[in-house]
Description:
- The protein is an alpha+beta fold.
- The strands form eight sheets. Strands 14, 15, 17, 18, 19, 20, 21, 22, 23 and 24 form a ten-stranded mixed sheet that branches. It has a five-stranded mixed sheet with strand order 7-11-10-9-8, with helices on one face.
- It is built from 13 helices and 31 strands.
- It is globular, with a radius of gyration of 27 Å.
Amino acid sequence: MLNVSSNVKSPSPPQDLSAVVDVEQAEAALVEHYPRLVRLAYLVLPPSLGRNRRVLTAHALTQRALPRSGRSGGTEGIPVQREGEGRGGDPGYAYVRLRVIGTALDAGLPLRRKALPKRAQLPPLLPQVWGLRLFPRSGGADELALDQRLASLSGPARAAYVLRGLERLPDADVRKVLAAAGVDEPEAALDEADGVDALYDLLRSPEFDPCSLQARPTDLMRRRQHMKAAGVALVATLVCGALLGLPGGGWGPDGAAAPAYAQNPAGQAALDPGQLTKVAAGTWKRSARTDFSVWPARGALVDDEALLRRALAVWARPGESVQVSATPGTAAGAPPGPPQLLFAGEVDAARVVLLYDGLRVVRYAEPKDGTGGAALDFARVDGASSAEAGALVVNRVDGNVRYLTAPWVAGVSVRDLLKPGSGADAVKRDDDGVTQPLASPAQASSCTSWNALELRDNTGANRFSTDLGEIVPAHLTAGRPRAPREATATDWSDTACSLAAARSNGVRSVNSWQYARQALPEANGPAAWICTRADTWRGADSRVLALFRAGGAAAVAAKAEDSPACGGREPSVLAGVRWKSRGGNWYLLGGGSKEIVSVTMSGSAPTPGNTLAVPTDRKAHAGLTGRLTDGKKVPTLR
């Protein structure tokens, strides 16, 4: 929230070095410049790791940066800083920095099924922290915005930006470091980094300092449940071990690959396409519920037993060539019994099968010209309402997405949430309910538009959903957390770009709520405070953003993960931001929900009401606390 100066010194321009590094030199450089090297690793690591794992991984990579042998000649031509930084011409620092950059880039590479993972791609063995979540101190809106922009870059581009900003290297030297770290196209990385504003001073903010940390407990209730589950699993393992050792015709080693599963009648039925549940077309009209359980079986290939048998077999035991993905918190195991068939047909260049087992929707896809390169996707959908069961992603290709819509959907259109006044474009569907290809925001690297699917059901109600990179699109709502309503395009016109922070997190619904308004000092006009909350199908790991809107633009003021704030259980929310008036004066602004009766800045008396505007210095640091009518304190969202 506040821009706090760092004690990291500015480095001097680089020079070339050709030298041999021994362990003593590298160790001395590592110990002397450890905080800076850990900050380098933290900034280059992908933010998708989460702040806790990102902190621990940054420390682990830095601690493993020493050469394995007594001497290493790996710094020839690698730039280092000149005098003034305390490591002028130091080959030890150049070597250790190169090792940190290289392993941080390796840690950001996706895991591949056929390739052994590199050590940096695995969770760190040391250091380890149990029972606590660690993360750097929260910065201001500028730092949060920069963190989001860096998250949109590739690993090499992040490294290029950090080497430019934190190490003050010119582009020629950045190319050398990237090439030595194994980057194939350093020039492309520099070009991509040019797309982010050169806010290099912010890299020294406490927001990006993994050596100055805050600690919070993990989910205590979940920890207790996990301990109970671990005890039950241990007992079950002991019992199964005893049974597996029984002689005779018991569960022995001379059965099939999965003898226990094969001897289960429900398991055998789950592999038989003739046992699939196929709901009749009009069932949803007579049913008391409207969810995936009343979707009819649709598609031209619903009677293709060979295709369905392959889909069921791959679901039960996917081979090494199958690309398997699952939303967080979704089990990827075999079906417990015969599932329900939702769709089987050809879409674009693939044969696609959609199945439902009461808990999960499973998508199997294979190319038309064979079964090589098959894909299997899992998504949790237990307890889905009619709004959440309105559509499924049936295929993606070239940045476009096709949906299969529910049988009760009477009309489909698409809207750009950033342009609510432009109207909706009608979407064509075939006889099975599959839409035409639509531009998807799920993989977009910039936010110049954000498409949302508008579904009109048979009662005339309109509901918005948007693609966040998973099988089930996220349902968009608006209003107070305890009584959200169906959203309109106007509700999301200022906050649609914040949906990028919820991608690929198993999101069920996202609510946007304008929880406060205030008049800006010096007659600078009105401002609004908006909270967006992305809730998941698994219940945990929600993501909350507080946004501050003034002058027609909204900026992220604060964010939190796995927090009850701005939700049905705890609707109260408070956030603050540093703001500069048109007259050049700085203020600390705070906005809270209407349940908050006073806001207090640390070291000051309480201010009545749910908003605050206090003159401040640009670099001052102050916390905010709200108070409810019952005296309960509400901390600032972070």
